[in-house]
Design a protein that fits this description.
The chain has 559 residues and is an all-alpha fold. The chain has 20 helices and no strands. It has 2 domains: 212 residues, no CATH class; 253 residues, no CATH class.
Length: 559
């Protein structure tokens, strides 16, 4: 599926002899659509296995349990540290700078700069890994400030154990981010989108092994043996390692070879560092907002329920919007570098319409089907009806802001393609401040559900402000076309939600939803009806993105 790059592996251009100014392939609308389709397939498989992963974790660890919160707080920490130190930089400004070097100076010089970035990433993250392993007890103490005294000691001890085993993940996250950036800059999107599948499968196997092991002599919902702890710790980290290692064969086929380059003052590194200051502000503010969520939610044993609902919430965004954003970023970066503002504006408008076409019906579908979907996928093993019901309620509040969340992430990439990290950082500061205020206001009333609603409020604000700024900066954003498309999608999505809800109720009365087969029939029937109605409505309303999708499928089938 790496044929998205038009150069054949082994050709002179593929092994580092492209002349400066060589045009990057597939930068137009057709290339964007094809690249999005490639990534959507990989991400769909990744998210399906991700759902199975969440289901396996819920069955093995539970949702509203000490061991589940300890595991998830510890497992989330490497992501927080990586994002804070280098993650935001590597995933946002590395690709635009690398594309500029690749376009203007040729692949040899661009890859030398990439080797310098990779070397610095390895050094910095290795040092951070050592420090955070030593500081694990204090990190866990920070995240568990609001935990009830009766469960404070066991949760802190278990989370500290897990965190020390999970912290090496940050090094592999960094190596994987650089590898992904290099592949994406060359329009090689398949491998990065399929790599998480391996991670998910290894974690699913880990949870199955955990559940199959003999339990403690006096089992409780929170009890874990020493052997079970090591299985969870080692298996989870091996998943991240495998997800990173699997990317390197694709890089080698592209012609890239890593060499140690201690070039702290190289021109590209200096450019990235200059852009990174505002990215760091963006990430720091985000992590402070997440810290508030962890402290509040963990105090009611609700952090795992929050994260489980967030996984469901992100599915449509991750399958389609992430694919759109990843395909757009190199193209937008190239168009901005060549001062082609009209093409930049048109491709961004297409991205907004394509995003709405997927996530708006998905959001309304979640609102009406949250309970049966969560019950089918989570209510088994160590997770009872109460935990599943809480997850479904949180999911509803998240879903209200699904389009706002996806739109902001898309607009964020537009700023990064323009090599502007200051504006989105300032927008994010205001949005997170609003989020914190909303969380403190809503949490006493709605509990963990209020944290999801606060997330919706903040991203709605951020997406509106970002859209206004970009529209002024670009001299418009095809407002009439985008507005008409959004109106059509909203109308079709309303019909979708109505059909899905009606079919769900009918099937719920016709079959027993106390059994997994009955639950599966209810969900499959409702989702199938909703999709059919949406496609029919999109055809009747002549929504443009349906025609693009329909025209794309035969070509891919022939290939």
């Amino acid at each position: 599926m790496d044929e998205a790059l038009t150069l054949e592996p082994g050709s002179p251009q593929a092994v580092g002899e492209s002349p400066p100014g060589a045009e990057l392939p597939l930068s137009g609308p057709q290339g964007y659509a094809r690249s999005s389709a490639v990534m959507a397939v990989g991400t769909t498989l990744s998210r399906v296995t991700g759902f199975l992963r969440v289901s396996a974790m819920a069955a093995a660890l539970g949702v509203v349990t000490v061991r589940a919160d300890a595991y998830n707080v510890a497992n989330n920490t490497p992501n927080i540290v990586f994002d804070l130190v280098l993650g935001g930089i590597l995933t946002s400004v590395f690709v635009p700078v690398f594309v500029e070097w690749l376009t203007a100076r040729g692949r040899d010089e661009a890859w030398e700069e990439a080797r310098a970035v990779l070397t610095i990433t390895t050094i910095v993250l290795s040092a951070i890994m050592v420090v955070t392993i030593a500081a694990a007890p204090w990190i866990v103490r920070l995240y568990t400030l609001n935990v009830r005294p009766s469960r404070l000691a066991p949760e802190r001890a278990l989370a500290t154990f897990f965190l020390r085993w999970f912290m090496p993940q940050i090094l592999f996250y960094g190596l994987g981010a650089v590898a992904t950036g290099l592949l994406n800059a060359h329009r090689r999107f398949a491998a990065p989108m399929f790599a998480p599948i391996l991670n998910n499968l290894l974690v699913i196997g880990t949870m199955i092994a955990f559940a199959a092991m003999p339990g403690p002599a006096h089992p409780t919902v929170d009890a874990v043996t020493t052997g079970q702890k090591y299985v969870l710790a080692i298996g989870t980290t091996l998943g991240v390692v495998a997800m990173t290692v699997v990317l390197w064969p694709s890089l080698r086929r592209l012609g890239f070879r890593f060499r140690w380059r201690m070039r702290w003052r190289s021109e590209a590194v200096h450019r990235i560092a200059g852009l990174a200051a505002w990215v760091f502000v963006y990430v720091l503010v985000n992590q402070l907002g997440l810290l508030q969520v962890i402290v509040l939610a963990a105090g009611r044993t609700g952090f795992t329920a929050y994260m489980s609902a967030y996984t469901f919430f992100q599915l449509p965004h991750a399958i389609f919007t992430v694919s759109i954003m990843t395909a757009l970023l190199p193209s937008l970066s190239a168009q901005w570098a060549t001062a082609d503002r009209a093409a930049f504006r048109g491709l961004l408008a297409r991205g907004i319409r394509s995003t709405a076409f997927i996530v708006v019906p998905a959001a309304l579908g979640y609102i009406v089907l949250a309970q049966p979907i969560v019950r089918l996928l989570l209510q088994h093993g160590a997770t009872g009806a109460g935990g599943a019901h809480l997850v479904s309620q949180i999911l509803v509040y998240f879903s209200i802001g699904l389009f706002s969340f996806s739109a902001f992430q898309l607009l964020l990439r537009a700023f990064y393609a323009m090599q502007d990290t200051r504006t989105p950082a300032l927008v994010n500061v205001a949005a997170v401040a609003l989020n914190v205020v909303a969380n403190f206001a809503l949490f006493p009333v709605l509990g963990v559900k209020g944290l999801a609603l606060g997330n919706t409020i903040a991203y709605t604000f951020a997406s509106i402000v970002s859209l206004v700024i970009l529209r002024r900066r670009l001299g418009g954003l095809e407002g009439r076309t985008v507005g008409r498309g959004l109106g059509q999608v909203l109308l079709a999505s309303g019909a979708t939600a109505g059909a899905a809800y009606g079919v769900s109720r009918v099937i719920g009365h016709a079959v027993s939803t106390a059994t997994i087969p009955g639950q599966a029939v209810q969900v499959a029937g409702a989702v199938g009806a909703g999709v059919a109605v949406f496609l029919a409505a999109a055809w009747i309303l002549r929504i443009e993105d349906l025609a693009v999708l329909r025209g794309l499928l035969p070509g891919r089938s022939r290939r």
